[in-house]
């Protein structure tokens, strides 16, 4: 569910527009005129106050048909996560049936390696990030029967290190993101017994900081994205007692800027994807009411593309499927009407989590 982009810390959390490394102002790349019927539909809804659901659904359905665009090629390495963001958003919108299920399931199974792990695309190396996305996609479609859970779980368990942490792949990078991916994956597959869960949660606890937040490895600064993975991993592994809920709650609610949006660290600009990283963390520690949901909703809605659909990181930037999903998921956590409920720990629709037998209550 995350982005794999080397380099600057924040770049691992956000594909910057369309995975292109820069924020792109809206209108600079998509020149096509909206069709007459589209204009008529848009005018009946005010995007400043309403989620234009049909536009977002049409935007996501169209994404896979634009295979000759630069954006499509530039995001090729993370296609598996792109599919997860797309179908999760469509499911929350109640439009999952509009996606080509057979094509998606066949893509997912083609990305699996004999070792059990999945790549971000066909013939790409396996990685925990894409293995989780693949398992999430199969879970949403209730088609985990297409894969051997033992094979996947053995691959995931093989990446646990002596200190309880997880490497993302055979190259050995360590990060609390990978602990989250591993535990989420194993929990969905009901194979938690294959790893040392206590050691895994103790490693996450060791990544905690004096401000209540968590970093990627012990000693790294707190970042909202890492906090989601740390708290999520602790929630799945039964280690939430390692979290100082009030201290962390204060750090998280200070991420809300006067414009209503949330940032990932102090002094940074607000960004729609942090609606998810921050809100889900607040939800997991029962502090969701510590920010203004109303102002955050206004910010997310202001990032919609009223003509072509999709949600961007900030108002007037180019929309992408990553921010579209996390914007909709954030609104779902805020209780926006007519959206399916999303689970803050698994980033999956609540009905999927319930079907898997993983509900918290
Ligand atoms: Zn972002």
Automatic annotation (TrEMBL):
Q: Is the Transferase keyword given for this protein?
A: yes
> Which keywords does the record carry?
Metal-binding, Prenyltransferase, Repeat, Transferase, Zinc
- Name the domain of life this protein comes from: Eukaryota
For biological process, the GO terms are: root development
Keyword match Transferase:
yes
GO function terms (MF aspect) = metal ion binding; Rab geranylgeranyltransferase activity
> What enzyme class is recorded for this protein?
transferase
Q: Which InterPro entries match?
A: PGGT1B-like (IPR045089), Prenyltrans (IPR001330), Ptb1 (IPR026873), Terpenoid_cyclase/PrenylTrfase (IPR008930)
One GO cellular-component annotation of the UniProt record comes to: Rab-protein geranylgeranyltransferase complex
Q: How is the cofactor bound?
A: Binds 1 zinc ion per subunit.
Q: Which reaction does it catalyse?
A: geranylgeranyl diphosphate + L-cysteinyl-[protein] = S-geranylgeranyl-L-cysteinyl-[protein] + diphosphate
Q: Which Pfam families would you find in this protein's record?
A: Prenyltrans (PF00432)
**Domain (Prenyltransferase alpha-alpha toroid): residue spans on this chain:** 54-347
Which cofactor names does the annotation list? Zn(2+)
The EC designation for this entry is 2.5.1.60
User: What does the UniProt record say this protein does?
Assistant: Required for male fertility and root tip growth.
Q: Tell me how this protein assembles.
A: Heterotrimer composed of the alpha subunit RGTA, the beta subunit RGTB and REP; within this trimer, RGTA and RGTB form the catalytic component, while REP mediates peptide substrate binding.
Annotated family: Belongs to the protein prenyltransferase subunit beta family.
**Protein name, please?**
Geranylgeranyl transferase type-2 subunit beta
Organism equals: Cymbomonas tetramitiformis
